[in-house]
Backbone:
C-alpha cells in the first residue's frame, strides 16, 4: 500500500472520500483463487476454515482499535504506520470474505446488491432518518397506512411534478 493510498484523503470531507475503481470482487476472487492454487492451498480452504481465518483477521483489525476509546473518521489519531496496518488488516478481512463466498458458491456482488435493496425497503428514508437504534422488529420501520395517505396528499397538493 502506498503512503498516498493511506493518507491521500484523510483530510478530505467524508463526502469527498472515494475508493479507487480498478478492482472488482471478481478480481479479488480470481486472484486469491490463483494464489491458493499455485501453492496447493485450496485443500486447506473449505468454508469452515476460511470462516475461522476471517474471524481471526477481524480480531487483528480490532486489536488496532483496542483500548483507544472512540476514534475520529479518517483516523487522525493514528500514525501513518498504524494506518497502513489498518489497511492491511481490512484487506485480509476482505480477501477472506470473498474467499468464503467463493467456497460457499455465493455470488457476493449479486447478493450484496439484493441485500442493499432489501435494506432500503426495510429502512425507508422518511421513517429511519436520524434513528440510531437497531430494531429487528420488522414492523418498526414499516410504512404506516397514514404515511402513504400523507404522501399521496402531498403529491396531489404539489405542482404535479415528480
Ligand atoms: Mg492480518
Residues:
Amino acid at each position: 500500500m502506498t503512503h498516498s493510498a493511506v493518507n491521500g484523503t484523510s483530510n478530505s470531507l467524508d463526502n469527498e472520500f472515494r475508493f479507487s475503481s480498478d478492482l472488482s470482487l471478481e478480481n479479488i476472487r480470481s486472484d486469491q483463487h490463483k494464489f491458493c492454487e499455485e501453492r496447493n492451498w485450496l485443500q486447506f480452504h473449505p468454508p469452515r476454515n476460511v470462516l475461522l481465518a476471517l474471524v481471526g483477521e477481524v480480531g487483528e483489525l480490532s486489536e488496532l482499535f483496542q483500548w483507544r476509546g472512540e476514534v475520529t473518521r479518517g483516523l487522525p489519531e493514528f500514525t501513518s504506520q498504524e494506518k497502513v496496518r489498518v489497511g492491511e488488516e481490512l484487506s485480509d478481512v476482505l480477501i477472506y470474505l470473498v474467499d468464503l463466498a467463493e467456497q460457499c458458491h455465493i455470488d457476493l456482488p449479486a447478493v450484496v446488491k439484493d441485500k442493499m435493496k432489501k435494506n432500503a425497503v426495510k429502512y425507508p428514508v422518511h421513517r429511519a432518518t436520524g434513528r440510531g437504534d437497531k430494531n429487528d422488529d420488522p414492523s418498526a420501520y414499516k410504512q404506516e397506512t397514514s404515511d402513504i395517505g400523507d404522501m399521496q396528499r402531498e403529491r396531489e397538493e404539489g405542482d404535479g411534478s415528480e
